Amino acid sequence: MSAVLPQDPFAGVRRRVLMIAACPFPAPRGTPVRILRIAESLAARGHEVHLATYHLGTSGGSLPFAVHRVPRVPTYRRMEPGPDYQKLAVMDPLLAGLTLRLARKLRPDILHAHHYEGLLCALPAKLALDVPMVFDSHVLLQAELPYYDLKGLGRAKGRIGAFLDRHLSRRADHVIVVTDDMRRRLLRDGVIPEERLTVAGNGVEEAFFQGRRGVFPQDGRQRLLFTGNLALYQGVDHMVKALALLLRGGCALRLVVATGSDREAFERLARDAGVLQSIDFIDPTVAQLPDVIASADVALNPRTHCPGIPQKLLNYMGAGAAVVSFAGSAKHLRDGENALVVRDGDVEGFARAVARLLDDAALRQVLGERAQLHARENFSWQACVRTVEQVYEHVLARNPPQRHHDGRQRAAPDGLRP
Fold first, then answer.
1. Contact 227, 290 (CB under 8 A)
2. What is the dihedral sign for C-alpha 226, 231, 234, 237?
3. CB-based contact 132:110 (threshold 8 Å)
4. CB neighbour list of residue 159: distance below 8 Å, 6 or more residues apart
5. What pLDDT shows up at residue 291?
6. Cβ–Cβ contacts within 10 Å for residue 52, how many?
7. Do both 251 and 394 map to the same domain?
8. pLDDT in tens, 278-309
């Protein structure tokens, strides 16, 4: 859905929004960052935002919206993405109960459920209280679920993911996806009608455009950079193999991995490949990350399958990094124009692309500048949130709430179209 917005049609419209985040919050990775930016932008535009989430999270400072947490579960300390059995059997039922209690108390205009587990946790409140629900789908499970370690499911994980993609999404009154690719897939599979499906992409914080070089020591070694969690779906196995090829080829470099997630499995992978001694692990704050990215010689995006868009990629582009990416996750990248893009799974090609950039400072600069310009012109959290507001009003026009906080009945503005 796009809209003609010559003026701000939502000035003065105030909604009470209950968001559901089945994850640690806040946390420096894609899903929690999207939730944070949408929630704080909605609050800045005058909406009353409440967020139901887990007991875990990094220090978020003072937030402009209310955060409601499930009771602390001492045995659950996992900050990494993805499901596990304790999360599904303990954490999500706790969050579903909290969401239902909050919905009864707050009587929100709309539920905004993030990711599939957020949708599951919001369903009881939607069904019991007849509150309209928007589902913010960050990924498609058919592509992502097979990468998670859910013992006993084996090859069935892909089929389960496809089933959930098809049958859970349609329980929402409206679905928001982060890329046109996801939209096309859901329409192709007949999951949801076009009029109930909208693209609202991620944004890039202004701080990334201000990143400064100089973080890494001038020791004669160039720096490759990977940021984010180290789950297998990120393609970290391909990255390790490419690093081994580069080192065997005589490249004087180090791989910097900026992550706050568990490193045990990745370190084992790197040790087996003989490259662990050439990897530096850092855990920068959100404020430090723009300078870290801007200081890298080459930023790596080794993920091969991603219907959504990796937040790391947008951050790389915003900071003006020279990027090497596999094609399957190279959203907004054009090979030779603003990045080097390699055929999925071609580890040797990935290593060659990295080596090419390491040897050509002028090409690194040109690609980085073009990527940054594209990011500045196309990725904005403000634009994302204006689209989210459109969706809210579109849904509420079809499902009018019983009461409005400003005392006036609202209708969706003209200009909405799929």
1. no
2. positive
3. yes
4. none
5. 98
6. 30
7. no
8. 999 999 988 899 999 999 999 999 999 887 78
